[in-house]
Amino acid sequence: MKVHVQFTLNGEPAEFLAEPRQTLLECLRDNLNLTGTKEGCGDGNCGSCSVLLDGQLVTSCLVLGVETQGQRVDTVEGIAKGSTLHPIQKAFIDHAALQCGICTPGFLMATKALLDHEPNPTEPQIRLWLANNLCRCTGYDKIVRAVQAAAAEMRA
Amino acid sequence: MSTTTYHLIGTRPPRHDGADKVTGRALYGADLKLAGTLHGAILRSPHAHARIVSIDTKAASQHPACRAVVTAEDFPETPDRIVDLGEGDTPLSYIRGNMLARRKTLYQGHAVAAVAATSPQAAAEIAALIQVVYEPLPCVLTAPAAMAKGAPLLHGDLRCTEFGQPTTEASNVADHFRQVMGDSEKGFAEADVIVEREFTTSTVHQGYIEPHTATALWNNDGRLLIWCSTQGSFVVRDTVACMLDLPVSRVRVTPMEIGGGFGGKVPVYVEPVAALLSKKSGQPVKITMTRREVLEGSGPTPGSFIRVKIGAKQDGTLVAAQAYLAYEAGAYPGAMVAPAATCVFAAYDIANQTIDGYDVVVNKPSTAPYRAPGATNAAFATETVLDEIAEKLKLDPLALRLKNASKEGTRRADGAKFRRIGCVEVLETMKAHPHYTAPLGEPSHAEAKRGRGVAVGFWMNAGLPSSCTLNVHADGSVGLIEGSTDIGGSRTSIAMMAAEVLGLQADDMRPSVVDTDTIGYTGVTGGSRTTFATGWAAYEAAQDVVKQMKERAAKLWKVDEVHFADGVFSAGEHRLSFKELAARVGEVGAPVVGRASINAKGPGGSFAGAIVDVEVDVETGKTSILRFTCVQDAGKAIHPSYVEGQMQGGSVQGIGWALNEEYFMSPEGRMMNASFLDYRMPTALDVPMIDTAIVEVPNPVHPYGVRGVGEANIVSPPAAIANAIHAATGCRMRHLPMNPPSVLAAIQQC
To answer: What is the tens place of the pLDDT at every residue in B38-90?
Structure first.
């Protein structure tokens, strides 16, 4: 028996039919065709599937789709304003903060959640906040620098 | 050092796939959705070693959501033969056997059967309905155990090759080779100091974040179409064709964007299984591994047992070296021990060497390459023994290395003589780096001790074939078609090399990585070869474009000779920029399409070194990385940001290998930590900024002097960290990983 879920997706009203056992990650990717959110582990340990649920950073593989009824979900597809990249997206490109790019959507969402509540984070704050997101390519150096640059740009 | 000036090479333009990858639009393997796609699931062995008594697929087949079931019996009945699919000569039966087990399972996680169903959940449920009766057998999990007399044998038909000659002895040792140079016995007799130590390293995984995934469609025209996450689309094509007994022309492989590989996505795992399921079901079938399947069922890199003995004169001259390298291949031969032998003493000019290598099968997943495969284990041994020699001789560890460093003309024990290399320059850069002489700072608490360590590592890199096509458009932009999976920005660095020839900017280029029908044969993205070899092909294709453009200009201007420099074509008074001429090509001839295919030789090899400061909590054994500097010879850094990225990424993988990562195996051969929670890779919180210093000793054979930079950077970190732990605590570390229990044990013993 599928459940009719109505919620706000990237600022727009949206709906989908979910099997109760489906995760939010599956609902986004399979039911709503938003494949920008990635699955790296399926058990909440890599952060690739990070999205914002009512503004809170969550791993969407650990949230059931039906739990988002009436809630607000923000994904990587909703960060850019039309054809203009968000300063975080631009900083990740300019600072070469991605190599293979599979973890990038999760890092972008985690960074957005961080900068939404802490516009001027220190390096240890950035590292602590991003410790839920695994990147195997970059060694994190350029990611941390991109976050610092994006924060400076957004404060300006 | 490099002195040529370039307009584009050495700059840092944004990558061509940047916008797609920060907006979620880039399509990775799991993002592909063909109409009517079924979902595959693989049933895997719960036993590390077992005889398959029977497989009953009846209940699974009768499930209403089931569309196909396959086992090893579904592979074509072709006789076994030796094939080379890019990783050396291998019996076809081993390649097929790793895909779906026949008669025996050789590791926990070994694929036994697979199903296709209408949803991923249904597929998992149906796979569990397959009844397999196993007869468990005793297992062996380490090289020394597998080499012991009376050890359980994995393969009844495996005979050891001893010094290149086949023997009749059934064994878990697939190969024992020896490399000899000079007379090491005589060398050791002349030594004033000899240090001989034994080392063990655990199995570790590449840890790419994207699980293996493939979609296969056995089309109604008889062609097999595959979309997958791979480091080499042509290797997938050739392997699948070989396993399914098809001509390569019947298979088309489209490489999707790839979420990391590090060597682990060179082998093929799910593609042939998805193909068999598609053939049976008549629909496209997608198989995506879970993280547990990736850890248990794909190829990690070998654990090893190593003994290294080095002798030195009082003045620090190294006179003899001996290595015993026993590497765990996992279930099937191929432990990458030959490259380990190449690298173990490569950084040093030592006249007398003896190196023994053993390729040993054990009941763990069949191993795959991992960034400089084999070299990191070996360097852990060599570089810590050298540190001990430096300590005994009261020499600066970098001075000892510099005194003996390999240079042009130095011969390795494998017989190869180095051409121009940057070993000395890397060591000199390390010595001059401010980090090497900076104060360590006060420990953060009473139980903490600080120390600094150094080490250097080598990887020889690969050449192999690459192809490139350039299409000149009327607006002066150029479409660049190539076949190298782009894992870290390579399509941009390759495009930069063509644009440099053409006098264009990076954003004038439109690079695409395409399927195996659309581009000439191109080797894997591996062996640090992509920027070197495919970039070289792009350079040659651009030369072809210039030649054709000159012909068009000559026709246009009715002259015999046209010059091209700095992006401008000229003849007498005539001048046209590349873009201006591109707009007029149609007036005088056919469209300009440049092509090149090369079999790149002379990759040159790259040296990389690490300087690391650690703080060891002697109460808990925890080691923290305080400061880390990676120095590497890039030959020429095409896009310095991506070179730095390789150095930083390799360094942090090396830190993970050094301090945390390992397969915890139960005595029965079960992996006890098959998740990212328990297989703990470094997070942003575990590491500091990774400083980089790019050394540029041009590779003489490459048009821009490029050496691949993808791998050598992982080789030295574990040894450098071990040496830093010794500097902090006075204790020598001889096992990887150096996690808190093993550091505490070392502190208690030393």
So the answer is: 999 999 999 999 999 999 999 999 999 999 999 999 999 888 888 877 667 78
The CATH number of B462-600 is 3.30.365.10
Q: How many angstroms separate the CA of residue A26 from the nearest CA in chain B?
A: 10
C-alpha dist (Å) from residue B408 to B411, B418, B431, B695:
9, 5, 21, 16
Chain B nearest-CA distance from A153, in A, is 17
Packing angle between helix B92-99 and helix B233-243, nearest 10 degrees?
100
Question: CATH classification of A87-155, choosing from 1.20.1260.10, 1.10.150.120, 1.10.443.10, 3.40.50.1390?
Answer: 1.10.150.120
**CA B715/CA B457 separation, integer angstroms:** 5
Question: ipTM score here?
Answer: 0.98
Burial B544-580 (b: 16+ CB within 10 A, else e): bbbebbbebbbebbeeeebebeebebbbeeeebbbbe
The shortest C-alpha distance from A7 to chain B (Å) reads 21
Judge: B260–A137 Cβ closer than 8 Å, yes or no: yes
At residue B91, the pLDDT reads 87
Contact B271, B228 (CB under 8 A): yes
Residue of chain B nearest A98, judged by CA positions: B488
Residue numbers in A near B652 (CB within 8 A)? 138-140
Amino acid in the structure at residue A147: V
- Determine contact, residues B83/B95, Cβ cutoff 8 Å: yes
Contact A43 B487 (CB under 8 A): no
Q: Is B582's pLDDT higher than 90?
A: yes
pLDDT tens across B710-741, in order? 999 999 999 999 999 999 999 999 999 999 99
Question: How confident is residue B169, by pLDDT bands cut at 50, 70 and 90?
Answer: confident
